[in-house]
Amino acid sequence: MAIERTFSIIKPDAVARNAIGGVVARLEEGGLRVVASRMVRLTEAQARAFYAVHKERPFYNDLVTFMTEGPVVVQVLEGEDAILRNRQIMGATNPEKADAGTIRKLFGTNIERNAVHGSDAPETAAQEIAFFFSGAELATLAR
Ligand code: IDP
Ligand code: MG
């Protein structure tokens, strides 16, 4: 067990349904701390770059359209095993298959509109945090 940081997005569907607080409450109850947070409207170029790993997938264009349809909250979460813990609190990609009480079960609609993003490994967490937050900004926010 180690203190880690991971990257999280509250997606446009969850922001639109007034669930920012509901999502953050579950992250906090699950043992994670928000150490950086900002509301942004992703540009198409940002969404394409952020999800470039999926560019050959059939859902890529629809995913980019979805992620740019409204504001999102980008945040850095910290805690014990934060990367895996966040994925557990989020639940499965498809909300229909997500465990009861998970964010995606509570606030997701379908496999695309699934309320939250969370990094899947230390390397992607570092890349995704750096995509949205500078080192200087994070240093300013450090406790
Ligand atoms: P993850 O968000 O659980 O890590 P990924 O497979 O990395 O899932 O997919 C990234 C995002 O792309 C998902 O969160 C979801 O919004 C969307 N997505 C994944 N699979 C599908 C699909 O089969 N149809 C439509 N959208 C999908
Ligand atoms: Mg993923």
Structure description:
With 143 residues, the chain is an alpha+beta fold. The chain has helices spanning 12-16, 20-29, 44-50, 60-67, 82-90, 103-107, 122-132, 135-141, and strands at 3-10, 33-40, 72-80, 116-118. It has a four-stranded antiparallel β-sheet with strand order 2-3-1-4, sandwiched between helices. The longest helix is centred in the last third of the chain and has 11 residues, at 122-132. The mean pLDDT is 97. The structure holds inosine-5'-diphosphate and magnesium ion. Inosine-5'-diphosphate binds next to loops. The site of inosine-5'-diphosphate has 9 residues, from loops.
Summary keywords:
alpha+beta, four-stranded antiparallel β-sheet, binds inosine-5'-diphosphate
Main structural class:
alpha+beta
* Biggest β-sheet description: 4 strands, antiparallel
Stretches where pLDDT is under 50 for at least 5 consecutive residues are none
Q: What is the mean pLDDT?
A: 97
How much beta, percentage-wise?
15-25%
Global shape = globular
Summed up, the helix count is: 8
Helix content range: 40-55%
- Ions, cofactors and other bound molecules: inosine-5'-diphosphate, magnesium ion
SSE run:
EHHEHHEHHEHH
- Distance separating the two termini: 21 Å
By oligomeric state, this entry counts as: single chain
Number of strands: 4
Strand order, sheet with most strands: 2-3-1-4
What's the gyration radius in Å? 14 Å
